[in-house]
Amino acid sequence: MSNAPSNAQSSAMRRDLCFKILARHIRDQIIVPVYQAAQEWHGISPDHALTYYSIGAMGQASSCALGLALARPDKGVVVLDGDGSLLMNLGTLVTIANQKPANLLHFVCQNGEYEANGGHPIPGRDQVDFAALARAAGYRRTDTIATLDDFEAKIAGLLAEPGPVFVALKLVAGPPPSQDYAFIHGAPTRAAFKAALNKG
Amino acid sequence: MSGAPITGAAILDQIAASGIEFIVSVPDITTSAGLLWPIVEDKRFRLIRVCKEDEGVSICAAMSMCDKRALLLIQYTGLLDSINALRSAGCEYKMPVCVMAGLLAKEPGVPPTQSRSFGVRIVEPILDTMQIPHALMEDAGDERHIRPAIDAAYARSYPTALLIGRQM
């Protein structure tokens, strides 16, 4: 199987470039990334102590984020979910919409595949509309973004807008991020997050 | 032999005394009338209804990062369904997740491991395998286990399970 991008992919938004734009806009928000998005985010923003790496149990990122958002309504919470991950926990959309956390921004990185598990397609990759699912669940606002220009134009507004907001990011992985499992899984990382979250 | 039954009011008083602020729940007929419906009206708690129990595991674990205490009120079947989330957040990442699970169809006075229900029989052995401490709440006075169990979970940063042994 070739990993070379198709013509459609070659013009698609790359996740690493998307996250670099996001990193420029992040201040004191909590970031909750999953799996390859977590590795990517760690590589791009290694010093963002308010990163809650949601790995270990696939599908749980948005639930972790909801817990953080409800317990700390003074902090913005940004989820960098995966499409395969979200499909494992679709009920979370209803739970979040029901709780109406104004401080929650839920991105799903929609690359259409289980990137960390062999590149197999997610079920329904060619027809599933994640933004429509979130809209039907009751998110206050939903969107789908497929270009870096559109992301750059909208990101500041998305971060400032009351939630819950859901945005499907149609993207491709780009160059493989470095894999720092020791850091992402490590107890010191969680301790540092907790300390940063509760200081002052 | 089965003693006088534990009451929902006694359980809720001990949950509140334990500093629990959030109750995260999927309904369970074992605890519906005695606990969950009263919680809806109880101003000491904020109820978060979730669609599936593993959501609740993650919510409770994340809240602990904010120094907020939460209790996951579910049925034992939901506990079984949440084993992977509990394994990850609770056991491997060592985060406190306090579970109160109704043992649907457990016979009062019969130890869970001797129940006629296969599902009930396997709960405690699974918790033992995961090194998750557990206590049975069935008779009046059993509520004394609640606060020490919750305090220990947060002090040790590890899950705990409180098993409701009869319908209330």
Overview of the molecule:
The complex is a heterodimer of chains A (200) and B (168). In chain A, 44% of the residues lie in helices and 18% in strands. With 200 residues, chain A is of the alpha/beta class. Chain A has a single domain (7-198), classed as Rossmann fold, CATH 3.40.50. The longest helix of chain A has 13 residues, at 148-160. Helix content of chain B is 43%, strand content 18%. Chain B has a single domain, classed as Rossmann fold (3-Layer(aba) Sandwich). The interface between A and B is medium-sized, with 28 and 31 residues.
Low-confidence stretches of chain B: none
CATH architecture of chain A: 3-Layer(aba) Sandwich
CATH domain class name of chain A: Alpha Beta
Please give the count of helices of chain B.
7
**Overall helicity of chain B:** 40-55%
Q: What is the overall shape of chain B?
A: globular
Give me the CATH fold name of chain A: Rossmann fold
Distance between the termini of chain B: 18 Å
Main β-sheet, spatial strand arrangement of chain B: 2-1-3-4-6-5
CA-atom Rg of chain B in angstroms = 14 Å
The main sheet of chain B comes to:
6 strands, parallel
Order of helices and strands of chain A: HEHEHHEHHEEEHEHEHH
- CATH superfamily of chain B, called what? Thiamin diphosphate (ThDP)-binding fold, Pyr/PP domains
The CATH topology of chain B, please?
Answer: Rossmann fold
Structural class per helix/strand content of chain A? alpha/beta
Strand content bin of chain A: 15-25%
Question: Most extensive interface: pair and counts?
Answer: A-B, 28 and 31 residues
Number of strands of chain B: 6
